[in-house]
Amino acid sequence: MKKPALLILFLLTVILLLSVVRIYISNQIATSGVVLGDLEQKTEQLKIDNSELAQKVYAYSSLTNVAAKAYDLGYTDQTSDYVLSNQVPVAIRQ
Amino acid sequence: MTWRYKLVLFAVTFAFILVILRLFYWQVVRASDLSAMGQAQYGSTVKIMPERGNIETSDGFPIAASKISYLVFADPKQIPDKNLAVNSLTGLLNVDPSTLSAELSLDRYWVPLKDNVDIPTKQKIEGLNLPGIGFSQQYQRYYPEASMAAQLLGFVGKDAQGNDKGYFGLEGYYDRLLQGKEGVATQILDAFGRPILTRVNGTSGATDGDNLILNINRSIQFLVEKKLKEGIKKYGAVSGMVGIMDPKTGNILAMASYPNFDPRDYQNYSEDLYKNPFISDLYEPGSTFKPIVMSAALNENLITPQTTCPICSGPVPVGGYLIHTWDDKYFPNTTMIQVIQHSDNTGMVFVAQKLGVDRMISALNSFGIGSNTGIDLQGEVSSPLKPNDQWYPVDLATTGFGQGISVTPIELLDAIGAIANGGKRMEPHVVAAVQSPDGSVIKIAPKVVDQPISPQTAKVMTEIMVNAVNNGEAAWTRLKGYRIAGKTGTASIPIAGHYDPTQTIASFIGFAPADNPKFVMLVILNKPSAAIYGSETAAPIFFDIAKDLLAYYGIPPSQ
Fold this sequence. Notes:
Chain A has 3 helices and no strands. By secondary structure, chain A is an all-alpha fold. By secondary structure, chain B is α+β, with helices and mostly antiparallel strands. Chain B folds into 2 domains: 170 residues, Alpha-Beta Complex (Penicillin-binding protein 2a (Domain 2)), CATH 3.90.1310; 321 residues, Beta-lactamase (3-Layer(aba) Sandwich).
C-alpha cells in the first residue's frame, strides 16, 4: 500500500511543478501582445515614413526639377561639342 | 436475446443514427452558411487593395509610382456633436459643409467622407481627436516627372465597381500585371454589430502589383520632349511627335507627342489627348515611305542604284491622272540614287510600276505595313492593305511615293528600322523587364519579326539615304562629320476627296550612325505654318535631337 501513495505523491508534485511553470510562462508572455502591437505599429509607421521619403527623393531627383534648378543657377545648353578626332600620342619616340 | 433487449438496442442505434445525420447536416451541408453567420457576428470582410506596381525608366527611376493615402470615413452614430465635426473637417478635407453634414446625418455605421487624403492632412485630422472618424489606407498613383511620357504611360482611373483600372498606354496594356491581387481582411464588430474603428485583422491574399522596367531612357525622353515642344512653337505646328527606337533590338528609347496631358489630372483634359498618336493615328507618310518601296525593288533585283528612270522628264500620266514632282522640277534619266536625293515622285512611280501590285503587297507585308507592329501599348491601330484585285494603276503609282496609303508612325519607324538593322525587322517593345514583388525579374528578349530585305540591300539603301541627307533638300541642316541616313517627307492631307494644298504633315526619318546605328528616329509635325516642307521643319528638329543623342552616346564624328 505504500507504493501507490508514493506514486500519487510524485504525480501531484509533477502536476504542481508543471502548473507553476505554466503560470510563470503565462506571466512572462502576457504582455507580449502589447509589444507585438507596438512592433506592428512601428513597422507600419516606417513604411509610411519610407513612402514619404521616397516621394521626396523622386521629387528632388526628377529631371523636371533638376532642369528648373539648373536654369535658376544660370546653366545653359551646350552649343557645340569639342571632339578629338585623331588619337594624340602620349609620347613621340625621337 | 429477449425481444426487450433487442428493442432497446434498436432504439439506441436509431438515436445514434439520427444524431449522426443531424451532425452531418450542420457540419457538412450547412457548414459554409454557419461559418458565414459566425464570421458576420465577429466582423465583416473588407477588401485590401494591393499596391500598384511602379513603372520605371531604364535608369530605375519611377515615372509612375504609388503613394500612401487615406480614405477618411465616419461612424455617424458615434459622433455626438455633428456640427463640430463638420466645421472641423470641411476645410481640411476640402468638402462642402452641406455635403459633409448630409453624410454625417445618414443612419449608417460607416460613411466614406473623402478618399486620397495625404499623410499630413490625416495627421491634422487625428490631432482633432474627433470621435467616430477613422482612416483606411489606400494607394494613389502619382507621377514624379509630371506629364513626361503621358501618352505612353496612360493613366489610372476607376472601373464600373469603383476599383482602380489602367487606361491607355502602359497602364492599360499591363493593367493586370500592375494592379496585383486584392486581399481580404476582417473588420471586427462589437457586441451590437458596430464596427470597431481602426481594428482590421486577418489580412490575407493581397499581392502587390509587378513593376515594369522600361526601355525608355529618361534623359532621352526629357530631351526629346523639350526639343519637340520648342520645334512645334518655332514652326507654328498644330501638334507633333517623335519616336526613337534601337533598330537592333526594337527597344523604344523615347516616344513623345505634344500637346499632351497631365495623368494626375486627366479628367480636365480633352479625351482626344489620351490616345498616343504615335501608335493610334493613321496618316499618309509621303516621301518618308520612298526608301521602303525603293529597297523592295532593289531586293528583287528589278533595279540597281545606277538604273536610270526613263519616264522622269516630265509629269507622268497614270490612270487618267497626271503625277508631278513636289517642286515641278524634272530630271530626265535620273538614277535611283538621285530619285531619293531629289525625292522624285516620277522616279518612284517608275520603281512602283517595276515592282507591280503583287510584289508591292508582298514587300509591304514583309515590312509590316498594314498590320499592327505588336508594340506593348494599348491602342495600336493599323489600316490593312487593299486586296490585290482592288489596286488600280494610280494606287500602285501613288503608293510608290507614300500617298494613298495610311500607316501609323510606329509602323514606319519599325519598317525603316529594318533597313538600319541589316534587313531584319524587330518587334518594337517599350517594356524591358517585369519585376515581381519578390524581386525576381523576367526579361523580355528582342524578337525578329521578319526579314523584308537582305543585308546587302539594306547596306545599299543605307548609302542611298546617306546621300539623300548629304546632298538632298535637308543638307543645309545636317550634322557635318557624321554619316546619317535619312529621308524627308512632306505629305499632303486628304480632306473631302482631295488633298489640301496649303496644309501638310512634315516629317523626317533617319538613323545614325549609318554604319552602326544606335537609333532610328521619326519626327512628325502636323500642319506647320512657318514652312510646309519636312526639310525646313522636321529635319532641323531631327538633327538637333540627333546631335545631342550622338554626344550622349559618346559617338565622335567619323569624317
